[in-house]
């Protein structure tokens, strides 16, 4: 894995302006993403985790400039790509791909698999018409599908096979970076393992960088080099996979991890569980100070007043928490 940043995300903000009420009479702001700063390293798999609605997909969409950022920068190849219009974005679009949870929604039911995979090749002029058939066969082989699948239609394929086609379409663009937004979440567990192994093989073969968005912490533990934990539009913690699972610092991370069953039954019986109380507050009016203070078991006075600084608490280990800054949270477990 290269240690150079492929992408630098600086103070990125995404607010959605919405209208509420039966007649849309009230304007409101959804604070989907507020001031997140991190690097994505060349060749790594960086996972984003957190409860539903905490801003994982919005991060993926905004850093690909598929949602217009409200504020902040995404530096890629020396350019702040979030300020580019669609025309200026074109050279970068090909390199920056996204794979979704439901490939059915992105595959045209009237296009054969060959046409679906060939479309981006022709659009980006990556092969001539004469080279197209071989190009499609190579891509299908890359994702573990035989060449005869080129003449099939999406409805003739299983969920796992459709996801392989979606990955082949992304690969057809010869990307450097792929956002995998819950790309395996809808699949059966055995198929999930196959698609994960495929993604890891392709990463090795083509030097890809992944932003992997997922709910399942066991999968995240298997696939990631580093993991970022999000809470209500902000990053709570980001560090290497080993450090996050062995030495979580943020109370929210500790609570999330404590919900994951241990492989060792003896360990599982003896450990304390930290159950997260209540729901994630509304992003229409997020709590002041630390957004986690309404649910945090170790919240202090300062937590509701001052936004905790996003800082490198240990080498390569970023966290935003007053208790960590003051040395209170330490490395131990939370009261159970
Ligand atoms: N287009 C939009 N317009 C208004 N609000 C939006 C829009 N897209 C997302 N949101 C809101 O922004 C917040 C973050 O949503 P996001 O989809 O990024 O969360 P997520 O972490 O991906 O959740 P999940 O795990 O359920 O996929 C949510 O409150 C969501 O309702
Ligand atoms: S800043 Fe305060 S409320 Fe937020 S996680 Fe840390 S201790 Fe809990
Ligand atoms: Mg999402």
UniProtKB/TrEMBL annotation:
SMART domains: AAA (SM00382). NCBIfam families: oligo_HPY (TIGR01727). GO terms for molecular function: ATP binding; ATP hydrolysis activity. It is found in: Cell inner membrane. The lineage of its organism: Bacteria, Pseudomonadati, Pseudomonadota, Alphaproteobacteria, Hyphomicrobiales. It comes from the Bacteria. It is a peripheral membrane protein. PROSITE patterns: ABC_TRANSPORTER_1, ABC_TRANSPORTER_2. One of its GO terms (biological process) is transmembrane transport. This is Peptide ABC transporter ATP-binding protein. Its main location: membrane. Keywords: ATP-binding, Nucleotide-binding, Transport. Belongs to the ABC transporter superfamily. Residues 261-286 are annotated as: Disordered. Gene3D superfamilies: P-loop containing nucleotide triphosphate hydrolases. GO terms for cellular component: plasma membrane. Residues 7-257 form the ABC transporter domain.
């Amino acid at each position: 894995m290269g240690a150079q940043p492929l992408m630098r995300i600086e103070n990125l903000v995404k607010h959605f302006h919405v209208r509420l009420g039966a007649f849309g009479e009230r304007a409101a702001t959804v604070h989907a993403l507020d001031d997140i700063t991190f690097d994505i390293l060349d060749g790594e798999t960086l996972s984003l985790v957190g409860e539903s609605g905490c801003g994982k997909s919005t991060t993926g969409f905004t850093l690909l400039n598929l949602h217009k950022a409200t504020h902040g920068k995404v530096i890629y190849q020396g350019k702040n790509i979030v300020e580019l219009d669609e025309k200026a974005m074109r050279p970068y679009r090909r390199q920056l791909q996204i794979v979704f949870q439901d490939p059915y929604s992105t595959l045209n039911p009237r296009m054969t698999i060959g046409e679906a995979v060939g479309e981006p090749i022709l659009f980006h002029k990556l092969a001539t018409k004469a080279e197209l058939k071989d190009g499609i066969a190579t891509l299908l082989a890359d994702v573990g599908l035989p060449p005869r699948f080129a003449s099939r239609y999406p409805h003739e394929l299983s969920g796992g096979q459709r996801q392989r086609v979606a990955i082949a379409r992304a690969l057809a663009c010869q990307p450097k970076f792929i956002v995998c937004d819950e790309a395996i979440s809808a699949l059966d567990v055995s198929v999930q393992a196959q698609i994960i192994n495929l993604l890891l093989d392709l990463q090795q073969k083509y030097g890809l960088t992944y932003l992997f968005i997922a709910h399942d912490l066991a999968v995240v533990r298997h696939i990631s080099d580093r993991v970022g934990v999000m809470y209500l539009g902000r990053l709570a913690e980001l560090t290497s996979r080993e450090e996050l699972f062995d030495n979580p610092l943020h109370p929210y991370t500790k609570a999330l991890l404590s919900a994951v069953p241990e492989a060792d039954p003896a360990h599982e019986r003896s450990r304390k569980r930290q159950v997260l109380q209540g729901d994630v507050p509304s992003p229409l009016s997020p709590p002041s100070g630390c957004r986690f203070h309404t649910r945090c078991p170790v919240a202090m006075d300062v937590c509701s007043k001052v936004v905790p600084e996003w800082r490198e608490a240990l080498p390569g280990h970023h966290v935003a928490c007053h208790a960590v800054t003051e040395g209170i949270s330490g490395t131990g477990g939370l009261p159970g």
